[in-house]
Amino acid sequence: FNGLQLWLLYPLATLDGEIFISQLDVDTTFRPLLAAPKHDPGKKVRVICLDAGHGGKDPGNQAYGRREKDLTLRLAADVRDQLQKMGFKVVYSRTSDRFIELSDRPALARKYGADLFVSLHFNGTGGDRSAAQGSEVYALTPVGAASTNARGEGAGARASAGNRNDARNLLLAYQIQKSLVKTLGSEDRGVRRARFEVLREATMPAVLIEAGFLSHPTEGKKIFTAEYRKRMAQAIAEGIQGYKRVVER
After folding, report:
1. pLDDT tens, 60-100?
2. pLDDT computed for residue 2 by the predictor
3. Measured between alpha carbons, how far is 238 from 144 in angstroms, rounded to an integer?
4. Distance (Å, rounded) from C-alpha 27 to C-alpha 238?
5. Most Cβ neighbours (<10 Å): which of 58, 141, 146, 246?
6. Is 228 helix (H, G, I), strand (E, B) or coil?
């Protein structure tokens, strides 16, 4: 879609030489981008909750002696700096190396009156470390569909709080992924769907960002540098700003 990879909820079907897209994809994948949801007049996107993934007893992915939990905390600080320059107010799920239960993270966003919830992560892979690189952004899976990496399972999952914002979740994920790929020149792994707990429990539009692969021999070394993380933070902040411009009347 406009040069960016979007993972569909269902495979395309063909009949008599014509291609068909599922109605669920029409409604929850393409419509939010072609006819973006708008806020009520006067409603603004002001407060952003940054969720630095993992922490405390949960180190997250580890590669070359570096831990995801430390790098997400540093990235959160860089994203905060960029967002504050743009006039946003920023709140956090954590500001130090401590463990926060997954369900408590969106609950804190709700407590602080956040308009958006953005969970920051870095990817990793075992085996051939050079096999995977690039950024991907997740929005909550709509009811009636399986998650991107679920191999067709989970289509019968019940609705959760986060499904109320399906259209805005997808739009936010798209804007951030588009900005990451453009700014970093990273491999586009696409806008994906998942039922991560932090996305299910969020009562405001929410995304989970896998900003790059720590395990990749080239990309990982870039992520370890402050300069590259600052560029990454700029891209994330500009994606949020892009979302704000689209939804505000």
Report:
1. 999 999 999 999 999 999 999 999 999 999 999 999 999 99
2. 79
3. 32
4. 26
5. 141
6. helix
Residue 212, Cβ neighbours under 10 Å: how many?
Answer: 28
Provide the token pair at 182.
């453009």
Structure tokens at 35: 């006819």
DSSP 8-state class, residue 58: B
Structure tokens at 249: 């009347």
* pLDDT for 129: 84
The torsion angle over the Cα atoms of residues 197, 132, 21 and 15, rounded to 10 degrees, is -140
Q: pTM, whole model, 2 decimals?
A: 0.96
Q: What is the distance between the alpha carbons of residues 189 and 167, in angstroms, rounded to a whole number? A: 20
Give the chain's end-to-end CA distance (angstroms, integer): 24
Convert the pLDDT of each residue in 182-204 to its tens digit: 999 999 999 999 999 999 999 99
Write out pLDDT tens, residues 101-144.
Answer: 999 999 999 999 999 999 999 999 988 888 899 999 999 999 99
Task: Name residue, tokens 């926060």.
Answer: 100
154-163: long-range contacts, CB 8 A cutoff, minimum separation 24: 154/195, 157/195, 160/195, 160/200, 160/201, 161/200, 161/201, 161/202, 161/203, 162/199, 162/200, 162/201, 162/202, 162/203, 162/206
Please name the helix (run of DSSP H) or strand (run of DSSP E) that holds residue 230, with its range, or none. helix 226-247
Q: Are strands 206-213 and 116-123 parallel, antiparallel or unpaired?
A: parallel
Rounded Cα gap, residues 200 and 159, in angstroms: 9
